[in-house]
User: Fold this.
Amino acid sequence: MRIVDFFLIILGLLVLFTALSVVVLSLTWLERKFLGRLQRRLGPNRTGPMGLLQPVADAVKLVLKEDILPSSADRAIFWVAPLVVLVPSFMLWVTIPAAENLVLRNVDMGLFYIIAFSVITILGLVLAGWGSANKYGILGGLRSSAQLISYEIPVIMVVIAVAMMAQSLNLIHITNFQLPGIQSITPETARLEAGIQNVPFAVLQPLGMVIFLIAGLAEVGRTPFDIYFAESEIVGGPFVEYSGAHWSVFFLAEYMNTFIIAALTALLFLGGWHGPFNPTSPQWLESLVGVVWFLVKTYFVILVIFWIRGTFPRLRIDQLMAFAWQVVVPLSFANILITGVFMYYGWPWWSLTLMSLTLSSVIGYLIYKHVTAPARKVAEVYNRRRMIERQPRRQAGRQSSGPSAGPEEAVSGG
Amino acid sequence: MAFQEVIFWVLAVSSVAAALGVVLLRDIFRAALLLVVVFLAVAGFFVMMNAEFLAVVQVLIYAGAIAILIIFAIMLTREVQQGNLPNRLQPAAVLFPVLLLAALVFVAVDTDWNLLQDQSRELQDNVEVVQTHTIGGIPDEMRGDIPGSDRSGLGELLINDFVLPFEIASMLLLAAIIGALVLVRER
Assistant:
């Protein structure tokens, strides 16, 4: 390796970091505006046109705030924890391609690399909780490790199903596999392609995409699953003692991870940089259009994530763990099973879609019944009591005012 | 080449220093953290030796799973920062590491490193990928043009030649899971 290559790598990392910072700023603005829309508010609208400078103002505020170190905290662990959270989520971006030839380093087992390094984030959260010498911090650290380890399994299983179909762990190969007319990598893939038809994996594995999104949200700790820093229960969990710049590092990492989940969903399931309009002749134009498609798909997924945040209430910790081990993990295994059966027998591509949809709708119906069971029970009890209350009053009304009085009159009169 | 040597020395010094810290520190939580540093440095060595798959596995299993398990156990143990007092297992604790060290030194001295170096240089000239040699015969058409694309060979070896150890390991893990469930079951 020559010294020029070294500087080129440093330059690439700097560009990546700048781009990610801009993305995070845009995400905070987008989240506030979009949540405002969902809640019939305007969102930020004072700083700059349409509140566009709000993230800048927030960043300046965070940097200028005093950075407080609790007196009983373990100083080294307390300062190192934000970095342990941020560095892995930055390192993941080294191998995520934004277009076919726009990636810092094309690692051949990129997907495996991403899974391995995303685990280290747990370590940072546990460290933050331990280092702050705070009960809520330690509780949050324990909760985060339990939650993140539980939801790591479905993410890995779904990714395995995708890699099985694409016959590769390379993100570029997987994304290209979803485009018709792409040359296959191995002879085995050629045989499979006849059955798979090269449609985006979202069409082939709707169940897989839903599981990936749910488990990914839990990995990142977005709102229905933000149990480990739930402000109303454990007042911020591992982040309770952090303020100023160090807290903003956690914040940066969280938004970076959200963007990673959205980008991976776009790459693995939505066809990445491929779109209806894709010129191939000059390479820079191809890359540009590819990046635009990639960003469009990623931001679409991000809007869905914000939408989920605006819609669902936070889960309780026991509900969260039960949901992971009783629903999501078995479903992800079933997803691998149907993918394997489909590939082994070489059925037509829509059969996998059908199996996946059937499975997800059956499970979705069962979850719906389970979740609404208490409400239905309450309604049933309420209705029965109303019937009982109505019955004697109607008879009493009949006795006093004669047979002409209707039941409504009797109730209101009584 | 010089650049790689710099990286090597950074990794070597940091891994040895962190390993010493693991042994010598009184605070067991910090010792566990330094163990993570050792694991990551070893993963760095694997990357330098072109064994990228092994490096990622190292990060996933050691730095990810095992380190978190250790830290979890420490967080759930009371009065953990005082450390352990010496007990009557001290002779055994001296004996076995000495035996292990002897075995490692013997292997390091006995191995003909020059031969391996020549072989790897030869392989680098021929096929660009060093570690394909170490895990056995992979047909050329299965090897991609990107380094580290030797997973298919590894997978084939696992389900052909080494299927018995592989299955025994999975049985062992299953037994461990069932044992853990039995231990924590409500009676």
Chain A has 16 helices and no strands. Residues 65-374 of chain A form one domain. Chain A has one domain: 65-374. Residues 140 and 228 of chain A are 5 Å apart (CA to CA).
